[in-house]
Specification:
This protein has 128 residues and is α+β, with helices and mostly antiparallel strands. It has 3 helices and 6 strands, in the order H-E-E-H-E-E-E-E-H. The protein has a 4-stranded antiparallel β-sheet. Strands 5-6 form a two-stranded antiparallel sheet. Strand 1 and strand 2 form a beta hairpin. It is globular and about 70 Å long.
């Protein structure tokens, strides 16, 4: 009997400790999901933004401005926000580490012209 309880105890703590690790962004395929704010399909991955709440709910957006509007309207407390590097769609970066540029040279899905870059050197050619 004690062995059965011990196995349940180990299983429980394995699950708990596994879920306590670092939270990472999900990788998406083009058109796989719709924006949590405007319901447009996420097809231009250069502008994809992800948000995860402290409760573990994950939201995906087709543009940076959708993410900002959604968090303000719904008073969401984000645990982590990732933005796609405009120059490398396979690279999702934490919001704290990106340089966000608004420019007429950038044609974002919602027309705001916002894009995230890894560093100032990459962002410079897109600044007005």
């Amino acid at each position: 009997m004690w062995f059965k309880n011990f196995k349940l105890f180990l299983l429980f703590f394995t699950v708990v400790f596994y879920n306590c690790g670092e939270v990472k962004p999900e990788t998406l395929s083009v058109g796989e999901l719709k924006c949590s704010h405007c319901s447009m399909s996420i097809v231009d991955m250069r502008f994809h933004t992800q948000l995860i709440t402290y409760k573990g709910k994950r939201y995906h957006f087709d543009a940076i401005e959708c993410s900002d509007q959604f968090t303000k309207q719904n008073q969401i407390k984000a645990k982590q926000i990732w933005m796609t590097n405009y120059l490398n769609t396979n690279e999702l970066l934490p919001k704290e580490k990106v340089i966000v540029v608004q420019s007429k040279k950038i044609r974002s899905p919602m027309g705001g012209g916002f894009a995230a870059f890894k560093n100032h050197e990459d962002a410079f050619p897109f600044q007005n």
